[in-house]
Amino acid sequence: MTKGAEDVAAPGQIGRITGKGVLGPLHRNGFGHIGSTQTDGTSLGTEFTIDGTLIAKGNAKVTLAAGEQANIGVAADTSIDSTKVYKGVFVGVSNWDKVIEELNAVALAAPAGSAIFKRSFRVIDSVFYVTGYTSGTQVTLSGDVTLDLKANDQVSVVGTIKGSGEKTDRLVLSDNSTLAFSMSHLCWQYQKVVDIVPDLVGKPRPSD
Q1: Among 4, 38, 92, 181, which is least packed by CB within 10 angstroms?
Q2: CA–CA separation, 16 vs 30, rounded Å?
């Protein structure tokens, strides 16, 4: 579970690290939203399971994402039950080259001292979302996951859920259903972003 997860909506989101984790100054993992990159969507979602006890301990504010029961024939929990095991989806950025291209355009137009040039600037590279469907339900979270960016900077990750029979529905994963996330920082050369490198837990950011 990750501190600040309630402020993260989707892979490709940009912002800054804020605060410090419980393990000390090298574990700064809070996230302050600035905007979102116009990427080509996300990678295919990967289903995973997680114990309800871990969810409750890690992010009590999390909302369990679900489709409409009338559409798929399967009910989902609306609150966390620590005795159950829940299904979730892991999603990552699909096209880092496009992200770098967009960030270079932002940097070119940004005045000196802007957030993008700060050492605290980060890009969300992957997100874990949790749903209200338990491991015992006949529900499959498919790999059909897409990123939806709206003009007012609202971000949604939309996935497909398959219930009983051939029934399917769409569910918005980023509606406060973020359980954990990982971040990457920018590598600069001659005032251009040349790479995006994952943060390593417990290690300081390397020099540019």
Answers
A1: 38
A2: 8
For 74-99, how does the pLDDT look when each residue is reduced to its tens digit (9 = 90+)? 999 999 999 999 999 999 888 889 89
89 with 129: CB under 8 angstroms?
Answer: yes
Nearest-angstrom CA–CA distance, 205 and 208: 9
CA-closest candidate to residue 184, choices 164, 199, 194: 199
Rg of the Cα atoms in the chain: 18
* Residue type for position 89: V
- pLDDT digit string (tens) for 25-40? 444 457 888 888 876 6
Instruction: Check: CB of residue 86 under 8 Å from CB of residue 134.
Output: yes
Distances in Å between the alpha carbon of 191 and those of 68, 104, 116, 151, 194?
48, 9, 11, 29, 9
Cα–Cα separations (whole angstroms), residue 158 to 10, 37, 144, 148? 10, 16, 8, 7
Torsion angle of C-alpha atoms 11, 171, 55, 23, degrees rounded to 10: 10
